[in-house]
Design a protein that fits this description.
The chain has two domains: 2-80, no CATH class; 100-281, no CATH class. The protein is 21% helix and 29% strand. It has helices at residues 2-16, 26-34, 39-48, 57-65, 70-80, 129-134; strands at 100-105, 112-116, 119-120, 124-127, 141-148, 155-156, 163-166, 193-200, 203-212, 215-218, 225-226, 228-234, 237-242, 249-255, 275-281.
């Protein structure tokens, strides 16, 4: 009777497992089998719980020697090879997400991540051409990426929001999201520029180049960039935080500035497009 009580307690512990959210591992399955749980119950737990199983040849042989049936071992192999389920809203940074940039919604009743859809600017505007022409190029002309819409879809009511960028290429879904247009992809937030976007009627603008008598510059100007910090929390997963409070307005993480024709008509690279992950800051 004593043995039956101990076995029941062990089985109940592993069935409920309310304390730990850790995925099941090989040793957990062996413990369940040793506790006297039948194959059918163990397989049901393998199929319904998150698992992190080692299934190389040597390990499979050791599982057999530990007394696991071929049915239980097969369930572990099947679980280990199953595609990873991706999320587009889980507030847990360690849960696999679709590639992209997410705004962490910490102000709603139920926290969640808000996926920011990137906008690729296919239109550019050139400003300051008159001054550029009158001064013979002494005054700079600026090239601006045009982003449709006057406001971003997602807005934060806090001045220092938190973002997460998922760039893990092993998910096989980041080629389009983070493509630079040069046959490569962004590898870390260090390749982003955080800028405040200028609001116009039905559009927003980001300066992505300039041209004067000294030459042309492509990319976000240093003085337009807002400093931010980032840390890697998992392979290909980065937490991003602005270094300062942001004023109310429109912002965006800009990257993938591509080449194009500058104000003079020559290939300067200053007239390219940009991909922008836009968001807003609003106090209300």
């Amino acid at each position: 009777m004593k043995h039956w009580v101990i076995t029941t307690a062990v089985v109940a512990l592993f069935l409920s497992n309310p304390v730990s959210a850790e995925p099941l591992k090989n040793d957990d399955v062996i413990k369940l089998i040793d506790a006297g749980l039948g194959d059918e119950a163990v397989i049901a737990k393998i199929e319904t719980e998150e698992g992190d199983y080692q299934t190389d040849v040597d390990t499979l042989l050791s599982l057999r020697d530990a007394g696991l049936s071929s049915s239980v071992i097969a369930a572990m192999v099947k679980k280990a090879s199953a595609p990873v389920a991706l999320s587009d809203s889980s507030p847990d940074p360690l849960v696999p997400h679709y590639a992209g940039v997410y705004l962490m919604d910490e102000w709603s009743e139920e926290p969640q991540m808000l996926r920011i859809d990137p906008t690729t600017s296919t239109q550019t505007k050139t400003g300051g051409l008159l001054g550029y022409a009158i001064t013979g190029g002494i005054a700079s002309a600026s090239v601006k990426a045009v982003i449709p819409g006057s406001e971003a879809k997602h807005r934060a009511p806090k001045m220092k929001p938190v973002f997460y960028a998922y760039m893990n290429s092993s998910e096989g879904n980041n080629a389009g999201t983070f493509s630079t247009g040069f046959g490569s992809a962004v590898q870390s937030p260090n390749e982003f520029s955080l800028v405040k976007l200028k609001q116009k009627k039905n559009r927003r603008e980001a300066r992505i180049g300039s041209l004067n008598i000294a030459g042309a510059k492509a990319g976000v100007m240093d003085k337009d960039q807002i400093a931010f910090s980032y840390e890697q929390v998992a392979p290909g997963v980065f937490k991003i935080t602005p270094d300062q409070d942001l004023e109310e307005g429109e912002y965006g993480f800009v990257f993938a500035v591509t080449g194009g024709a500058g104000p003079s008509g020559s290939a300067t690279g200053a007239g390219g497009g940009a991909r922008v992950f836009a968001f807003g800051i609003s106090e209300d």
